[in-house]
Write a structure and sequence with these properties.
Helix content: over 70%
Strand order of the largest sheet: 1-2
Radius of gyration: 23 Å
Number of strands: 2
Strand content: under 5%
Oligomer: single chain
Distance between the termini: 28 Å
Number of helices: 13
Order of helices and strands: HEEHHHHHHHHHHHH
């Protein structure tokens, strides 16, 4: 009974800051009218019909494509990093993990702005390039710049969960495989990699979801040429004032993210007794 009373403030917090905002978003998504005048609202599916046109589907496709590529790059870079760190001594391991965590203490916007001073036409990289006698490089306002920003900002979300799983692997399993004649490659392929799959799945989810919905990175590093679905949602709420269409896009993006989470959770083998998962 006491535990239930302790939970009441958290339930109230969830209702105020999660349930009510979601209900408002759904209400706006399935209505039309003046966003500032509730009396003009009428039930309508026009917002969803408007989204499923080639123009907006192309933006969604670009968002998913960039998020997928950035997730793959983070996995390719992050797994070896996490593996190397997990094999170090505890003191050195903690220092290396701290180096990944420290940038996350800085504001996300400031971290992204920092790349402007590096990639800009008058940035540090082009300064070195021109000093060497070459023409300035066009490093900004393209997909590559957006991908770079995504990988830089979200790489720790791939490294940390994989590292956490790798450090929990029982060394006796590795020693047993080696005693049975398995070489290092086979030990990794047959023992370490399968046991680290839960961390990989968590890392993929933690990178893909913010990458597909980001708008700061694409705004600063991609410019107006490379709007993603997150930019469209922001524009509808902040500049256009069409909260109904913005809410419908938010609902569609939310459903897409939930489907992605459901698909990735199917590969998560670490669900003893059916617990520990979202689905």
């Amino acid at each position: 009974m006491k535990m239930k009373k302790v939970a009441y403030p958290y339930i109230l917090w969830m209702v105020i800051f999660i349930v009510i905002p979601l209900l408002l978003i759904m209400y706006f998504a399935f209505t039309k009218g003046d966003s500032q005048n509730f009396s003009t609202f009428q039930f309508s599916l026009d917002n969803f019909k408007r989204f499923f046109t080639p123009t907006y589907l192309k933006v969604l496709g670009r968002s998913v494509n960039l998020a997928f590529i950035s997730t793959v790059i983070c996995l390719i870079l992050g797994y070896p990093m996490a593996f190397i760190i997990s094999k170090e001594k505890i003191r050195k391991r903690n220092i290396m993990i701290l180096m990944f965590v420290i940038p996350m203490w800085m504001n996300f916007l400031l971290r992204t702005y920092a790349w402007l001073t590096l990639l800009g036409r008058n940035g540090f990289i082009n300064f070195l390039v021109t000093k060497l006698g070459f023409k300035p490089l066009e490093l900004m306002y393209n997909d590559k710049a957006v991908l770079l920003g995504m990988v830089y900002n979200f790489l720790p979300f791939m490294v940390l969960p994989i590292y956490s799983i790798l450090t929990k692997i029982d060394n006796s399993l590795i020693e047993a495989a080696e005693d049975l004649g398995a070489n290092k490659v086979k030990v990794f392929r047959k023992v370490i990699l399968p046991l680290s799959i839960p961390g990989i799945i968590t890392g993929i989810t933690m990178v893909f979801i913010p990458a597909v919905s980001t708008f700061i990175i694409s705004s600063l590093l991609g410019g107006n040429k490379y709007n993603l679905i997150g930019n469209l949602v922001e524009q509808q709420f902040r500049w256009t004032g069409d909260w109904h269409f913005g809410s419908s896009m938010s609902i569609i993006l939310m459903v897409f993210i939930l489907i992605t989470m459901a698909l990735t959770s199917k590969f998560d083998k670490e669900k003893e007794g059916g617990g520990g998962g979202l689905w």
